């Protein structure tokens, strides 16, 4: 009885932890599906019921149901994207490619929803999807009202970061261009994609499709970006040791190299080719999308001449038969890289390929075709893991010298070994960590506790453009006020100087006026005295004249007067003159 109870309690957590997980990835290349494969199979192996909507089916196993989505539009879309990636950029071609992409993905998602129609009635607990070309998965998570985990298996983490509301900072992202102009172009391209191409060509058509095919579905186009920012968890297909050094949100994890594994036995034909070869075999593959003929006839001719007489496994079709060159449309890449005789991997250097090369210690010769691959190639060369060549400028000697350098310089292989040791030196295996976070979200019905409350900030707020705007405004006002204040001070100084000048002139004028007044006063005093004297003299003269006139009049009339009267009159005249002289 005790053993039975113990067995029940042992099995119970497994039963309780079994959840229904929808993994939605109908638009993807084969390499994308390879990156998802470990997580899909790992969750099914952990006991969860997994429904995988995919373009390429995986090996069957318990708890895993698969819906394979194959459409003509998807194949056309893949060809269009491949051709544009391999050609030079022009605006007309870009618009045409985006338009065809929009049409192709809409029809593919329509077919996916038709296949999912009867599955959506189930009780789902979690959806895992990609925010690139598979935005319908984000929309389905909103429609089903379940937690959402995002997984973008490409060197496009800036797109994932942008969607999460936490764009990669050029000051931290060491895989960004170093020049100011390069960083400016990088930021502008991401802004054009995130704010124009993605909403108008990818998201809005998928929302319209959801309105048509999902019952009672409603979502404002302008609110879609909130769904991505509200993702419960997100996986980056990257590693810090591959120069992906960035500040990350707590509800994210880097799971680069998750798909890398040990080699399996080779198919008989390939194994025989290896047995018949010496110690050195060169493996050439440009991925699942880029076909060798896209590199141009000149480049292909260079490869043919340089590879003549060497043992080569080459993923190519239509090549002339050569006993030293094994060709084919597809090869088990990891199994080939795991062979000790595989000495060089010539690749376009997509993200999956470089991680597999590092895992198996095979030096790389990168010949990038797209922008993403150019970034990857720069990291490989900077880390001493290989070399890179430009297919448009490559010559026979350049290719030959690069091959000889990789074969003879053992430092490249040693760098691979050291890098892998650092990558794998972690407390938890990569796949186990990824499964832990998915189950963490399941256990807590989401991961709101890990989300930043600032995730809904606009780009203006995120980059502190509003703060800088206020600072510029304040500095501008302060500058204006400062200039105005100094102009006011200058005006007052000018007034003071003018006043002092006027005061000085006025003082000089007063001094000269005072001196003049003093001189004039003295002269006036002298003139007054002279005038007074003249007046007195005139008065005396007047009196004398009057007396004389009187005397004359008396004398003239003396004939009629007596001598005594005349004497009396003369006495009176003398007295009057004497009296006047005394007064004067």
Count of DSSP helices? Answer: 19
Number of domains: 3
CATH class of the largest domain: Alpha Beta
CATH architecture of the largest domain: 3-Layer(aba) Sandwich
Find the count of extended strands (DSSP E, 2+ residues): 13
C-alpha-based Rg, rounded: 53 Å
The averaged pLDDT comes out at: 83
State the secondary-structure class. alpha/beta
- In the CATH hierarchy, the third-tier topology of the largest domain is known as Rossmann fold
Low-confidence stretches: 1-16, 558-564
Major sheet attributes: 7 strands, parallel
The multimeric state of the shown protein is: single chain
Main sheet strand line-up: 3-2-1-4-5-6-7
Estimate what percentage of residues fall within beta strands: 5-15%
Proportion in helices: 55-70%
Using the alpha-carbon principal axes, give the shape: extended
What do we call the CATH homologous superfamily of the largest domain?
A: Glycogen Phosphorylase B
Distance between the termini: 167 Å
Give a brief outline of the structure.
With 584 residues, the chain is α/β, with parallel strands linked by helices. 57% of the residues lie in helices and 10% in strands.
What can you see in these coordinates?
The structure is a single chain. This protein has 584 residues and is an alpha/beta fold. It folds into three domains: 19-259 and 428-455, Rossmann fold (3-Layer(aba) Sandwich); 268-424, Glycogen Phosphorylase B (Rossmann fold); 466-583. The protein has 19 helices and 13 strands. The chain has helices at 2-16, 30-45, 72-86, 91-116, 135-144, 157-163, 180-213, 224-229, 268-275, 297-307, 333-337, 351-359, 371-382, 396-408, 411-424, 430-443, 459-462, 465-556, 563-583; strands at residues 20-25, 49-54, 64-68, 126-129, 148-152, 233-236, 252-254, 281-285, 312-315, 325-328, 342-347, 364-366, 386-388. It has a seven-stranded parallel β-sheet, with helices on both faces. Strands 10-9-8-11-12-13 form a six-stranded parallel β-sheet, with helices on both faces. α13 (371-382) links the parallel β12 and β13 (386-388). It starts with a helix and ends with a helix. 31% of the residues are buried. Mean pLDDT is 83; it is low at 1-16 and 558-564.
């Amino acid at each position: 009885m005790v053993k039975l109870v113990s067995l029940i309690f042992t099995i119970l957590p497994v039963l309780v932890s079994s959840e229904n997980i929808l993994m939605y990835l109908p638009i993807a290349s084969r390499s994308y599906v390879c990156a998802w494969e470990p997580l899909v199979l790992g969750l099914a192996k952990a006991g969860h019921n997994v429904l995988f909507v995919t373009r390429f089916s995986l090996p069957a196993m318990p708890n895993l149901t698969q819906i394979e989505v194959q459409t003509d539009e998807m194949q056309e879309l893949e060809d269009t994207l491949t051709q544009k990636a391999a050609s030079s950029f022009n605006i007309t071609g870009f618009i045409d490619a985006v338009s065809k992409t929009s049409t192709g993905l809409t029809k593919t998602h329509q077919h996916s929803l038709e296949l999912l129609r009867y599955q959506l009635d189930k009780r789902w607990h979690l959806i895992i999807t990609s925010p690139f070309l598979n935005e319908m998965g984000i929309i389905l998570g909103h429609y089903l009202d379940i937690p959402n985990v995002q997984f973008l298996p490409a060197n496009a983490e800036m797109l994932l970061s942008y969607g999460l509301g936490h764009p990669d900072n050029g000051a931290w992202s060491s895989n960004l261009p170093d020049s100011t102009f390069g960083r400016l172009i990088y930021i502008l391209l991401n802004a054009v994609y995130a704010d124009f191409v993605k909403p108008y060509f990818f998201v809005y058509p998928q929302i319209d499709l959801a309105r048509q095919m999902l019952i009672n579905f409603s979502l404002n186009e302008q609110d879609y970006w909130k769904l991505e920012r509200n993702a419960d968890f997100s996986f980056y297909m990257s590693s810090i040791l591959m120069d992906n050094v960035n500040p990350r949100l707590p509800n994210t994890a880097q799971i680069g190299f998750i798909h890398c594994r040990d080699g399996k036995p080779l198919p008989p034909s390939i194994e025989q080719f290896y047995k018949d070869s010496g110690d050195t075999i060169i493996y050439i593959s440009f991925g699942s999308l880029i076909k060798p003929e896209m590199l141009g006839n000149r480049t292909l001719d260079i490869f043919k001449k340089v590879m003549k007489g060497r043992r080569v496994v080459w993923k190519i079709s239509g090549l002339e038969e050569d006993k030293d060159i094994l060709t084919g449309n597809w090869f088990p890449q990891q199994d080939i890289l795991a062979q000790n005789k595989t000495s060089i991997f010539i690749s376009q250097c997509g993200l999956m390929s470089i991680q597999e090369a590092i895992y198996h210690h095979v030096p790389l010769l990168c010949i990038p075709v797209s922008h993403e691959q150019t970034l990857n190639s720069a990291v490989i060369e900077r880390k001493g893991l290989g070399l890179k060549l430009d297919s448009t400028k490559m010559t026979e000697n350049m290719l030959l010298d690069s091959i000889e350098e990789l074969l003879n310089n053992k430092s490249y292989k040693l760098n691979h070994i050291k890098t892998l040791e650092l990558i794998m030196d972690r407390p938890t295996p990569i796949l186990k960590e990824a499964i832990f976070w998915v189950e963490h979200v399941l256990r807590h019905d989401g991961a709101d506790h890990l989300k930043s409350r600032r995730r809904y900030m606009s780009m203006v707020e995120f980059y502190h453009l509003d703060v800088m705007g206020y600072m510029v405004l304040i500095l501008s006002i302060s500058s204006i006020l400062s200039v105005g204040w100094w102009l006011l001070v200058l005006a007052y100084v000018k007034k003071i100087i003018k006043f002092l000048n006027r005061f000085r002139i006025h003082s000089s004028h007063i001094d000269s006026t005072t001196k003049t007044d003093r001189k004039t006063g003295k002269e006036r005093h002298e003139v007054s005295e002279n005038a007074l004297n003249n007046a007195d003299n005139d008065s005396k003269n007047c009196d004398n004249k009057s007396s004389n006139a009187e005397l004359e009049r008396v004398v003239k009339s003396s004939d009629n007067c007596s001598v005594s009267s005349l004497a009396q009159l003369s006495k009176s005249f003398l007295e009057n003159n004497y009296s006047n002289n005394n007064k004067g």
